[in-house]
Amino acid sequence: MNDQPLLQPIENIEKEPLNEGNKKIKTITTFSVFPLIINAAIGTGIFGLPFAYYEAGVYPSLMVLILFFIVNNITSGYVLEALSRLNILPKSFKESPQIIEENKCFIKETYGYTEMGYRLGSYPLKFFANLSLVLNCYAGLWAYVATCIKTFTTIIWIIIGNQDYCHSKNHFLDSWECQLTYYGSLIIYGLVVIPLSFLDVGKQAIVHIILTIVRFGSFTVMIITCIIQVIVDGPLTNERNVFDFYWNGFGTVFTHTAFAFVVQHTIPSIISPVKGEKRKVNLPIISALSIASVFYALIAVICSYTFNGKVLTPVTLNWSTYTGRNGGWGEGKELWFAYIIKYLILFFPVFNLTSSFPILSNTLAMNIENLFPHRYVLNHPKKCKYISRALAIFPPFILTCFIDSLEIIFDFAGIIAFFLAFTLPCLFIFMSLYRFNGFTLFTIKPKTPFTNIITSTPFVVMIIFFVTLILFMISLFFLIQETVLSFINDSSSSGSFSFSN
Fold first, then answer.
1. Which of 137, 89, 110, 85 is nearest to 28 (CA)?
2. For the ranges 58-67, 175-184, 211-220, the one whose mean pLDDT is highest
3. Phi and psi angles of residue 207, each rounded to the nearest 5 degrees, phi first
4. Percent of the chain having pLDDT more than 90?
5. DSSP string covering 94-159, please?
6. Is the CB of residue 44 less than 8 Å from the CB of residue 140?
7. Distance CA 218, CA 345 (A)
8. Residue 233 CB coordination number (10 Å)
């Protein structure tokens, strides 16, 4: 999931190409798409993958990862194909295309998901696309707040000297001291990011380059310290064999992976500044998704094996007990270098997400504003601006007051990510072909630089659509089953506790 939000809004209000409106925008090379997609792909979602791999087992989790890698590459191509055809389609959905000019069917202008929905499926598809984007942004901001609050609370109790005091999965069951630090951390984080989110966000390219370097540096340190721990002293626990199959965790690994992987909605804005006809932008996208998949696998497999039953979400909290002794997590006072590693890993998501929150909240506000009546926005621009920003900023804090479980947040976000990553790209390419050819199963006209003779046929698009839908329904079934069983177990354990006392 993208926790390096785009510096321009994902969507413009209506019928406006993303590469218009700022004629002085700097162009980039095709190669520059690679790091931008990497930044979009490797984000907050990676913090929950080790727990998901522990729940489902490494092998089924890697199967899901490989499946997502293949399908994500296909659906990313669908977005590029649909954008290519939009350049020769009439701006109104009611107008029919006159002449198919394949030599002009390339990406000259780019449009965001909302405008793609409007041009290809009129207002119903536009509304569905915009609603999916809004919910995805809400899930991302909710994850930002919960991640930072959990980290703040852990650091406060490390300073107090009792870091294991507040580790309940439900903060309502914690003592008043834990609740005080929890809500105090929520207020402090809010005082920092809420005022920033009401300001207009400027370009912060240098800041984000630094944060990207810190991110990859931190991930590298995480991998190295885990490998050293396993070599020297083995996993922290052997509660279960993480290489076995645990199908009851399939729902968790599916939604967590979906949330971590969704980048399709960022593609139009990322490729917008690319020079020329953008005929080869698919190559850096495929390369970036390949690197992201390798990183996901490394972090998830190594961390789930190292921490086993002690794995936390976000996984960075596992470094709160890092001492540098006996491989890394041995008993005793921290060694001097352990302080550096410990606080580097703990603070890295806080710095990263604090900087990203105002940008993503402004992106969300722009999408919320798209849901307002267009005439009202024109007549009351300032009022709409601040109402939409308030609606973007405050709900994630309110939600975190009641639910701070990142497992639940990632599950919810993964459900929304499914629509952005699979459903909408399939609908976009299908409708882009339908606008030219009517309902047909095997005709691919007009062809684009990204057309694949197999995956681009309407018949295969429908197969991918329904296969991913079936997988989604299966994962949803397991997810509901896990939630119900967890609720029953929690209720029975709390009941037995009360009886025994």
1. 110
2. 58-67
3. -60, -45
4. 35
5. TSPP----GGG-S-SS---HHHHHHHHHHHHHHHHHHHHHHHHHHHHHHHHHHHHHHHHHHHHHHH
6. yes
7. 6
8. 14
